[in-house]
Inverse folding.
């Protein structure tokens, strides 16, 4: 029962994040959606660690995931600010100059 | 349905509601704050499950540092100016603002006041020494990789503040 609850919460969190990425055109909201998806993965790893009885290993993975998450966010924020400085907008539809 | 299941339903539902609020609110600053609250609820969940070290990391980094990064980004891209800032003062926001705190207090009340509540149902296998051993001994090479990733993050922040200085 508890595992089912966790799976439902994980799926809902990931679905909310994916929905936000699909629905929005703002680079900042895309970063926020990525954060939500990472939170779903964090919960998934914690649940998996609990089920397998290896919470210590799960913790180390979660710590690595958090570090990667914050670095991705920082780099994404830098890209967002650079794009805003160059184009004056953070709307993904207006970022046409980087098309190949 | 026993008390533990009800408590977990409340906590997980609160997590999903905050995540939904993060996506649904129009104001980006409010969305960043809602994301921080989502991280705080996830911290509570990790702590109950026995992942204390990860919980502290989640609270300090995700609820703290990442929120600061988002606030800086929103400020520097000026998306919080004008209409966005004006909407912060709107009555609707003032009505909605206390809602997360009310939910937090309700969730805390369930944990603290519910008689016979056993919140350590999933936390029986926590071992601090084991966590340290895994992190520093078994995954020592991965820590080197993480250091490189942090270096990449520092360069990203350098880009962030370089643009600010250029302005």
């Amino acid at each position: 029962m508890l595992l089912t609850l966790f799976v439902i919460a994980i799926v809902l969190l990931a679905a909310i994040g994916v929905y936000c990425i699909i629905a929005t055109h703002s680079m900042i909201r895309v970063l926020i959606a990525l954060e939500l998806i990472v939170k779903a993965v964090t919960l998934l790893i914690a649940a998996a660690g609990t089920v397998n009885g290896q919470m210590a290993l799960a913790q180390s993975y979660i710590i690595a995931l958090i570090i990667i998450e914050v670095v991705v966010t920082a780099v994404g924020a830098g890209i967002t600010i650079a794009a805003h400085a160059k184009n004056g907008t953070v709307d993904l539809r207006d970022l046409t100059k980087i098309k190949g | 349905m026993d008390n533990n299941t009800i408590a977990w339903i409340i906590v997980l539902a609160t997590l999903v509601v905050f995540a939904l609020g993060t996506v649904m609110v129009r104001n980006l600053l409010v969305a960043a704050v809602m994301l921080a609250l989502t991280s705080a609820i996830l911290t509570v969940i990790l702590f109950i499950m026995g992942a204390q070290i990860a919980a502290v990391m989640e609270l300090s980094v995700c609820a703290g540092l990442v929120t600061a990064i988002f606030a800086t980004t929103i400020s520097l891209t000026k998306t919080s100016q004008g209409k966005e800032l004006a909407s912060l003062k709107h009555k609707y926001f003032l009505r909605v603002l206390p809602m997360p705190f009310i939910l937090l207090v309700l969730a805390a009340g369930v944990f603290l006041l519910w008689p016979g509540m056993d919140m350590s149902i999933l936390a029986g296998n926590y071992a601090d020494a084991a966590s340290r051993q895994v992190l520093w001994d078994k995954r020592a090479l991965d820590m080197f990789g993480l250091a490189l990733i942090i270096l990449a993050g520092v360069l990203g922040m350098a880009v962030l503040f370089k643009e600010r200085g250029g302005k």
Q: What stands out?
A: Chain A touches chain B through 57 residues (CB under 8 Å). Residues 44 and 99 of chain A are 35 Å apart (CA to CA). Chain A is about 80% helix and 0% strand.
